[in-house]
Structure to design on (161 residues):
């Protein structure tokens, strides 16, 4: 080679190969944000929050909480706005206290309203510390849409539905 000649390395392209067949895509798992939290319903039956179907609203409350009482009154006065949702009022309070609360705020006997008891340990495990009332709104399939912590004007809750 003379001094003025440069060599250039060339890349060789490997021979074309048949493309591998595409792996069949498996469907993405459906996300369900409702927790596997045990609930004792007012009729004595056990369920879990995860097994609740349709549009679901969890209202965490204590019967002697004045903020919870005002929230319940507002929800009770606007039940028609919640007709497409199952409302679950969940508390650590004994079921008889919850039943009394439900009657006082005209929530008992409503087709889309239920009361349930959860243990403090389970509530903490799945939701951490929170004020009462706290409202969790879930769409069909358990997808969390919105959380309202503390007393919230019912108009804001309805706007999130």
């Amino acid at each position: 080679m003379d001094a003025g000649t440069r060599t250039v390395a060339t890349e060789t392209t490997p021979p074309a190969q048949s493309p591998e067949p595409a792996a069949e895509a498996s469907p993405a798992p459906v996300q369900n944000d409702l927790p596997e939290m045990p609930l004792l319903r007012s009729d004595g039956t056990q369920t879990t929050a995860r097994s609740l179907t349709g549009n679901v609203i969890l209202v965490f409350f204590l019967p002697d909480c004045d903020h919870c009482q005002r929230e319940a009154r507002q929800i009770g006065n606007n039940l028609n706005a919640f007709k497409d949702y199952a409302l679950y009022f969940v508390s650590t309070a004994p079921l008889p206290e919850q039943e009394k609360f439900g009657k006082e705020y005209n929530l008992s006997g409503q087709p889309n309203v239920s009361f349930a008891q959860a243990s403090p340990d389970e509530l903490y495990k799945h939701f951490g510390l929170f004020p009462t009332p706290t409202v969790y709104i879930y769409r069909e399939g358990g997808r969390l849409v919105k959380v309202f912590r503390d007393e919230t004007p019912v108009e804001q809750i309805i706007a999130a539905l």
In short: The chain is about 20% helix and 20% strand. The chain has one domain: 38-159.
